[in-house]
Amino acid sequence: MSERITVENGKMNVPNHPVIPFIEGDGTGPDIWASASRVIEAAVEKAYNGEKKIEWKEVLAGQKAYDQTGEWLPDETLETIRDYKIAIKGPLTTPIGGGIRSLNVALRQELDLFTCLRPVRYFEGVPSPVKRPEDTDMAIFRENTEDIYAGIEWQEGSPEVKKVIEFLQNEMGVHKIRFPETSGIGVKPVSEEGTKRLVRAAIDYALKEGRKSVTLVHKGNIMKFTEGSFKNWGYEVAEQEYGDKVFTWAKYDRIVEEKGKEAANQAQDEAEKAGKIIVKDAIADIFLQQILTRPKEFDVVATMNLNGDYISDALAAQVGGIGIAPGANINFETGHAIFEATHGTAPKYAGLDKVNPSSIILSGVLMLEHIGWRDAANLVTKAMEKTIASKVVTYDFARLMDGATEVKCSEFGDELIKNME
Ligand SMILES: NC(=O)C1=CN([C@@H]2O[C@H](COP(=O)(O)OP(=O)(O)OC[C@H]3O[C@@H](n4cnc5c(N)ncnc54)[C@H](OP(=O)(O)O)[C@@H]3O)[C@@H](O)[C@H]2O)C=CC1
Ligand SMILES: O=C(O)CCC(=O)C(=O)O
Ligand SMILES: [Mg+2]
């Protein structure tokens, strides 16, 4: 009998036949979902000999929702996901410049899914533009509800933007808007609570997964009270809540001031040897260079919404591209989560049964891990390793791999199921 996943006192109870809502998605969403759902079902069946089974429940969002209900994101969809706790989704289209605001962002905000977790690891044999892709093994913790990404902005020429600009000029003494008559304005909220819960989730993950460091990535030299505060609050939560489980670069700086650089280096060495998590920070522009040149120095990454978006796609490229980049939007306090690929709808390939379903399949792996069905998750991961090693791949990998056999999106799913052992 199908049942609900529940969370009591922070503990998730998962029945053997949990109902899990899914959003098929726009563009290539139906192609990848058809392949992914079969792979996930097969892994669960094989891991638990039919004792456990996911009961999928379709919920609507995007074009399909609009066509059927006249709403892009029906309340019923939000209510159902709230009720059933977790969901998995295909990508949803967001028009550029005008039209509806991002439904993906709306889902994250409405359900307060404050972390976008995007693990980035290399699968042997995947074509990559870097020499040592296996050195890239990071987990991005992207703040998911705030920042300029929240969509608080006013269009150039509107009465609203005029009012905002007048307020800034007349009441706030702002004289730096270069072209006030023709500017649109966006607002970038970054809060202490939002930062601390995100950084807390990143440190908890680092401790649980035996990771070495958490890097706070920001542009705090320029945006002092948003990105700069993110860095300061990040260090604050690390020191106040994790005590001697962490060693922060804020502490390093204090030791330099009091006792000099040698003492600070020694303190950090000792902390590393003691297995403490090193909490450090990097300015976003140089970070984007260093993930390419010195990827081994980075492990868990905590950052704000827009930086996290750019960093996700850049890091995905290092390990084979967004065809294989999974993601999870999670509220670690309530247990609510929506699993989704890092990529978008790739509309030019819609309906061609062509694109790589690995991103949503690996998002399914994150989902299985989230509900504690690790045996099923491991079956998918191992099948992915085996299939890629055998060079049976979709077009995106095939075009960069010598001797590859190119298969369709659905055939790649078949191959994974065949390779489950
Ligand atoms: N979470 C979400 O739902 C997201 C939604 N979007 C939305 O998606 C729409 C399209 O965005 P766009 O910027 O074009 O980015 P997309 O990620 O949709 O596609 C860009 C390119 O990435 C490659 N790609 C994407 N998905 C796959 C896949 N599964 N397998 C192999 N290659 C893939 C393709 O490259 P190539 O052409 O080289 O083969 C594709 O042309 C927009 O409306 C955007 O807002 C974007 C990101 C996330
Ligand atoms: O919502 C969108 O359309 C884009 C979102 C996106 O690029 C992301 O979250 O990575
Ligand atoms: Mg993105």
UniProtKB/TrEMBL annotation:
Which PANTHER family does UniProt cross-reference here?
ISOCITRATE DEHYDROGENASE [NADP] (PTHR43504)
The UniProt transmembrane annotation reads none
User: Which family, according to the similarity comment?
Assistant: Belongs to the isocitrate and isopropylmalate dehydrogenases family.
Name the EC number(s). Answer: 1.1.1.42
Gene Ontology biological-process annotations: glyoxylate cycle; tricarboxylic acid cycle
- PTM annotation (Phosphoserine): residues: S102
Q: What is this protein called?
A: Isocitrate dehydrogenase [NADP]
Question: Where are residues bearing N6-succinyllysine located in the sequence?
Answer: K89, K231
Q: Cite the Pfam families for this sequence.
A: Iso_dh
Source organism of the structure: Salinibacillus kushneri
Chain positions recorded as Mg(2+) binding sites: D309
Q: Which residues carry this modification: N6-acetyllysine?
A: K131
What does the entry list as the binding residues for NADP(+)?
T93, H343, G344, T345, A346, P347, K348, Y349, N356, Y395, R399
- Annotated site residues (Critical for catalysis) in this chain: Y149, K219
SUPFAM superfamilies given for it? Isocitrate/Isopropylmalate dehydrogenase-like
Record's subunit section: Homodimer.
Q: Which SMART domains match?
A: Iso_dh
